[in-house]
Amino acid sequence: MTSPARRELGEFLRSRRQQVDPRTAGLPLVGPRRTPGLRREEVAMLSGVSHTWYTWLEQGRDIRPSRQVVDALARTLRLSAAEHEYVLRLTGHGTPPPSAVPDGLPAHLQRLLDALDPSPAYAITASWSIVGWNRAYAGFYPGVAAAAPGDRNLLWLVFTDPAVRALLGDWESDSRRFLTQFRAEAGDRLGDPEVLALVARLEAASEHFRTGWASRDVDRFSSAERRFEHPSVGSLLLEHHQLTPADAPGVQLVVYTAAPGSESEQRLTRLPG
How confident is the model at residue 58 (pLDDT cuts 50, 70, 90)? Predict the structure, then answer.
């Protein structure tokens, strides 16, 4: 594990430990507790490791826990599937981070985006920089073409562009969802200069981001229907999909589709451009 990954692992385990009710872990409440959640020695006992070893793990020391120990900690801390996967990635037991992609989008993937019209679709890198989009997405969110290349990042636009805030049907929950998904994907790359710079800019620009990032909450992506409020065509109910091309694992394609025959399908055809 890299030093940033070790530090993130320690902070993440501490934050989850403090959220576990001792009673749900089968521990009796004897006397007052100075801090919420489980104590370190309790986590160690319930997970079958030594108190000292677990303390070192939270301190970010150079320790390499086995898959079995990670699974035991996940059970003790009542981690969700997304949180368990996050810890596996931080400890080197999960899916390796995606490979880097060149600047811009490969031509065959741009042709795929274009073929998805009239469904709005765009492509992002592992750091969520937007590197391509189709005609429908340019009408769905005209600001994508006008944004400076350094600002054309999905997370940056969600938290700083008023037009995106107005477009999202429920900005408070939608922005939080984007944040937790980004952290789940980028946790083992928090030491990368590109990720460090993005997080620092967002913490300086958005109190909402700053608060959400400090929570260390993570979640995985799931396809679901999302509501948007477009200034020209009105309300849109669109299903949100995310795809990873087999020949470009460092790129994700994001597609919004409308139910056949729905009012939203008709409104998509009326997007500007």
Answer: very high
For residue 48, what are the CA distances in angstroms to 30, 69, 73? 22, 8, 9
SS3 label, residue 150: helix
- 39 vs 54: CA distance, rounded Å: 11
Domain at 107-268: CATH architecture: 2-Layer Sandwich (3.30)
Within 8 A by CB and 6+ apart from 90, the residues are 1, 5, 8, 9, 12, 187, 188
State pTM to two decimals.
0.85
Report the alpha-carbon distance of residue 172 to residue 166 in Å, rounded: 11
Q: What are phi and psi of 60, to 5 degrees?
A: 80, 20
pLDDT at 187: 81
Give residue limits of the domains in the chain.
Answer: 3-90, 107-268
Q: Kindly list the distances between the CA atom of residue 175 and the CA atoms of 138, 210, 240, 263, in Å, as whole numbers in the listed order.
A: 20, 12, 14, 25
Residue 20's nearest CA partner among 84, 79, 93 is: 79
Q: What percent of the chain has pLDDT over 70?
A: 96
